[in-house]
Amino acid sequence: MPKTRTLPTAARLVAAIALGALGWLASEMVRPLMPPQTAFGWFNYVNLALGVLCGWFVIGSRAGRGYGEALANGLTGVLALIIWGFFVQSFNLMLKQSMEGKFDGPVEAIVGIFNNAIDYAQYLIDPALIGTLLVGGMICGLLAEMAARRWT
Fold this sequence. Notes:
Elements: H1 10-30, H2 43-59, H3 67-99, H4 106-123, H5 127-150
InterPro entries: TrgA (IPR047784)
Keywords: Membrane, Transmembrane, Transmembrane helix
Protein name: Tellurium resistance protein
Protein backbone atom coordinates (compact mmCIF):
# COMPACT_ATOMS: atom_id res chain seq x y z
CA MET A 1 0.00 0.00 0.00
CA PRO A 2 1.40 3.42 -0.88
CA LYS A 3 2.32 5.68 2.02
CA THR A 4 -0.14 8.34 0.88
CA ARG A 5 -3.03 6.00 1.76
CA THR A 6 -2.25 6.27 5.47
CA LEU A 7 -1.81 10.04 5.60
CA PRO A 8 -4.60 12.32 6.82
CA THR A 9 -6.61 13.87 4.01
CA ALA A 10 -9.42 16.38 3.81
CA ALA A 11 -11.74 13.61 2.67
CA ARG A 12 -10.96 11.55 5.78
CA LEU A 13 -11.54 14.55 8.02
CA VAL A 14 -14.83 15.48 6.36
CA ALA A 15 -16.02 11.85 6.42
CA ALA A 16 -15.08 11.51 10.10
CA ILE A 17 -16.90 14.69 11.09
CA ALA A 18 -19.96 13.89 8.97
CA LEU A 19 -20.35 10.27 10.11
CA GLY A 20 -19.64 11.26 13.72
CA ALA A 21 -22.46 13.80 13.52
CA LEU A 22 -24.72 11.18 11.98
CA GLY A 23 -23.83 8.79 14.82
CA TRP A 24 -24.82 11.46 17.34
CA LEU A 25 -28.07 12.24 15.51
CA ALA A 26 -28.98 8.55 15.26
CA SER A 27 -28.23 8.13 18.98
CA GLU A 28 -30.69 10.90 19.77
CA MET A 29 -33.28 9.21 17.56
CA VAL A 30 -32.73 5.87 19.33
CA ARG A 31 -33.41 7.19 22.84
CA PRO A 32 -37.22 7.42 22.52
CA LEU A 33 -37.36 3.99 20.88
CA MET A 34 -35.81 2.19 23.85
CA PRO A 35 -37.65 1.21 27.06
CA PRO A 36 -38.02 4.07 29.57
CA GLN A 37 -35.78 2.39 32.19
CA THR A 38 -32.80 2.23 29.80
CA ALA A 39 -29.67 3.83 31.28
CA PHE A 40 -27.84 5.42 28.35
CA GLY A 41 -24.72 6.74 30.07
CA TRP A 42 -22.07 7.48 27.42
CA PHE A 43 -24.25 6.16 24.59
CA ASN A 44 -24.10 9.27 22.39
CA TYR A 45 -20.38 9.79 22.93
CA VAL A 46 -19.52 6.17 22.13
CA ASN A 47 -21.55 6.31 18.91
CA LEU A 48 -19.97 9.66 18.03
CA ALA A 49 -16.50 8.13 18.43
CA LEU A 50 -17.50 5.06 16.40
CA GLY A 51 -18.86 7.35 13.69
CA VAL A 52 -15.61 9.31 13.58
CA LEU A 53 -13.55 6.11 13.32
CA CYS A 54 -15.79 4.56 10.65
CA GLY A 55 -15.86 7.82 8.72
CA TRP A 56 -12.07 8.12 8.82
CA PHE A 57 -11.21 4.51 8.00
CA VAL A 58 -14.15 3.31 5.91
CA ILE A 59 -15.51 6.29 4.00
CA GLY A 60 -12.50 8.61 3.97
CA SER A 61 -10.03 6.00 2.80
CA ARG A 62 -12.20 5.20 -0.24
CA ALA A 63 -13.00 8.77 -1.30
CA GLY A 64 -11.97 10.05 -4.72
CA ARG A 65 -13.31 7.21 -6.86
CA GLY A 66 -16.40 8.94 -8.24
CA TYR A 67 -19.85 9.93 -7.07
CA GLY A 68 -21.43 6.52 -7.66
CA GLU A 69 -18.78 4.91 -5.49
CA ALA A 70 -19.25 7.69 -2.94
CA LEU A 71 -22.87 6.65 -2.38
CA ALA A 72 -21.80 3.04 -1.86
CA ASN A 73 -18.93 4.13 0.40
CA GLY A 74 -21.34 6.13 2.53
CA LEU A 75 -23.68 3.16 2.90
CA THR A 76 -20.72 0.92 3.73
CA GLY A 77 -19.61 3.40 6.39
CA VAL A 78 -23.07 3.50 7.94
CA LEU A 79 -23.26 -0.30 7.94
CA ALA A 80 -19.88 -0.44 9.68
CA LEU A 81 -21.12 2.12 12.22
CA ILE A 82 -24.26 0.08 12.88
CA ILE A 83 -22.36 -3.19 13.28
CA TRP A 84 -19.73 -1.67 15.59
CA GLY A 85 -22.44 0.19 17.50
CA PHE A 86 -24.40 -2.99 18.11
CA PHE A 87 -21.25 -4.83 19.15
CA VAL A 88 -19.94 -2.17 21.53
CA GLN A 89 -23.28 -1.47 23.17
CA SER A 90 -24.08 -5.20 23.47
CA PHE A 91 -20.62 -5.92 24.86
CA ASN A 92 -21.09 -3.16 27.43
CA LEU A 93 -24.43 -4.63 28.50
CA MET A 94 -22.88 -8.10 28.66
CA LEU A 95 -20.19 -6.78 31.05
CA LYS A 96 -22.89 -5.31 33.27
CA GLN A 97 -24.85 -8.57 33.18
CA SER A 98 -21.68 -10.52 33.97
CA MET A 99 -21.06 -8.42 37.05
CA GLU A 100 -24.62 -9.24 38.14
CA GLY A 101 -23.85 -12.97 37.78
CA LYS A 102 -26.22 -13.64 34.88
CA PHE A 103 -23.78 -15.90 33.01
CA ASP A 104 -22.27 -19.19 34.15
CA GLY A 105 -19.18 -19.02 31.96
CA PRO A 106 -17.32 -17.10 29.26
CA VAL A 107 -18.98 -18.88 26.33
CA GLU A 108 -22.41 -18.04 27.66
CA ALA A 109 -21.30 -14.42 28.06
CA ILE A 110 -20.12 -14.28 24.43
CA VAL A 111 -23.44 -15.69 23.29
CA GLY A 112 -25.05 -13.04 25.50
CA ILE A 113 -23.43 -10.32 23.36
CA PHE A 114 -25.28 -11.58 20.29
CA ASN A 115 -28.53 -12.04 22.20
CA ASN A 116 -28.25 -8.45 23.46
CA ALA A 117 -27.64 -7.22 19.89
CA ILE A 118 -30.76 -9.04 18.69
CA ASP A 119 -32.77 -7.51 21.53
CA TYR A 120 -31.49 -4.03 20.62
CA ALA A 121 -32.25 -4.57 16.92
CA GLN A 122 -35.90 -5.30 17.68
CA TYR A 123 -36.30 -1.84 19.20
CA LEU A 124 -34.51 -0.08 16.37
CA ILE A 125 -36.67 -1.16 13.45
CA ASP A 126 -38.04 2.32 12.86
CA PRO A 127 -38.57 3.78 9.38
CA ALA A 128 -37.43 7.27 10.39
CA LEU A 129 -34.21 5.96 11.93
CA ILE A 130 -33.47 3.64 9.01
CA GLY A 131 -34.18 6.39 6.47
CA THR A 132 -31.99 8.86 8.36
CA LEU A 133 -29.11 6.39 8.44
CA LEU A 134 -29.41 5.51 4.74
CA VAL A 135 -29.76 9.08 3.47
CA GLY A 136 -27.24 10.38 5.98
CA GLY A 137 -24.69 7.75 4.96
CA MET A 138 -25.03 8.65 1.31
CA ILE A 139 -24.61 12.34 2.17
CA CYS A 140 -21.48 11.51 4.19
CA GLY A 141 -20.06 9.65 1.20
CA LEU A 142 -20.84 12.53 -1.15
CA LEU A 143 -19.30 15.09 1.23
CA ALA A 144 -16.12 13.03 1.44
CA GLU A 145 -16.04 12.73 -2.34
CA MET A 146 -16.45 16.47 -2.77
CA ALA A 147 -13.66 17.07 -0.26
CA ALA A 148 -11.40 14.63 -2.09
CA ARG A 149 -12.02 16.40 -5.41
CA ARG A 150 -11.74 19.90 -3.96
CA TRP A 151 -8.61 19.53 -1.81
CA THR A 152 -6.44 17.03 -3.68
